[in-house]
Amino acid sequence: SLVHGTEIVAGAQKGHYAIGAFNTNNLEWTRAILAAAQEKNAPIIIQTSMGAAKYMGGYELVQHLVQDTIKSMEITVPIIMHLDHGNYDAAKAAIAAGYNSVMFDGHDLDFKENLEKTKELVALAHAKGISVEAEVGSIGGEEDGIIGAGELADVEEAKQLAATGIDFLAAGIGNIHGVYPANWQGLNFDRLKELTDAVSIPLVLHGGSGIPVDQIQKAIGLGVAKVNVNTEQQIAWAKEIRKYIEENKDHETKGFDPRKVLAPGTEAIKNTVEEHIEWFGTPSVK
Ligand code: G3H
Ligand code: ZN
């Protein structure tokens, strides 16, 4: 069932594991992510970027889709519905539409404005029990039109953002959206340690696709309690569908029946999500 996120992510921080936050794009992705959570009997965060929500028909539609899919699949594990990298208007719209959690990504604003807008959204969201994630520094690369230079999170700014009452903090620690370049230097654990020493709320690791598992687990050990994964699901999905189409392109119906064509992609997403839940050490719920 849909639940709010604050306590679950705080519990992960205390227990030194993380909750996976997986991006959805449509009905099949939603079903795959929910099925993986149910299979592992573990809580997860299902999230949409602004671009995905627009693509799917808006925040209300997404909220209803997730809620109704949970019902029809008889999903019993806790599911948190989250807005990923929202601007101010998107965060407000997601709060109004009944999301359980929102990220306000103000990395492109000057810091004072980021702080003020974060504060306003915390008041709005907390009045409804909705959690808020803010961002300090930036995540390198690009995700759905959100572009970041990848500058390291400033510890002083992290403290000021944490003081607004936010529930989780996304921090730039050398992480990058999308595929990591061959010459990537790895996560900056020194900065991560400085940040977790300075703020008490859970930190969020963005750009979870392609980070070596030992680095992810080390980050979790240092206080990361939410890990975002998007690209890895897209790659797994595309690979299996491409293979299926190649193999069945001359078949009478298999080659074009959408329910058949999309099925291997859905299965690939489910497997990817399950694997990440294991890597993050999310324990099963009783
Ligand atoms: O906000 C979403 C994530 O940070 C996903 O990053 O596509 O590199 O896994 P990724
Ligand atoms: Zn991100």
Automatic annotation (TrEMBL):
Q: Does the keyword Zinc apply?
A: yes
Q: Which UniProt keywords apply?
A: Lyase, Metal-binding, Zinc
Give the protein's cofactors. Zn(2+)
Pathway participation: Carbohydrate degradation
Is Magnesium one of the keywords UniProt gives this record?
Answer: no
Coiled-coil annotation: which residues?
Answer: none
Cite the CDD domains for this sequence.
Answer: TBP_aldolase_IIB
Indicate the transmembrane segments per the record: none
Q: What is its EC number?
A: 4.1.2.13
- Any one GO molecular-function label of the UniProt entry: fructose-bisphosphate aldolase activity
The top EC class, named as a word, is lyase
Identify the domain of life. Bacteria
Query: Which PROSITE patterns does this UniProt record tie to the protein?
Result: ALDOLASE_CLASS_II_1 (PS00602), ALDOLASE_CLASS_II_2 (PS00806)
* Pfam families found in the cross-reference section: F_bP_aldolase
**InterPro entries in UniProt:** Aldolase_TIM, Class_II_FBP_aldolase, FBA_II, Fruc_bis_ald_class-2
Q: List the NCBIfam families hit by this protein, alphabetically.
A: cbbA, fruc_bis_ald
Q: What is this protein called?
A: Class II fructose-1,6-bisphosphate aldolase
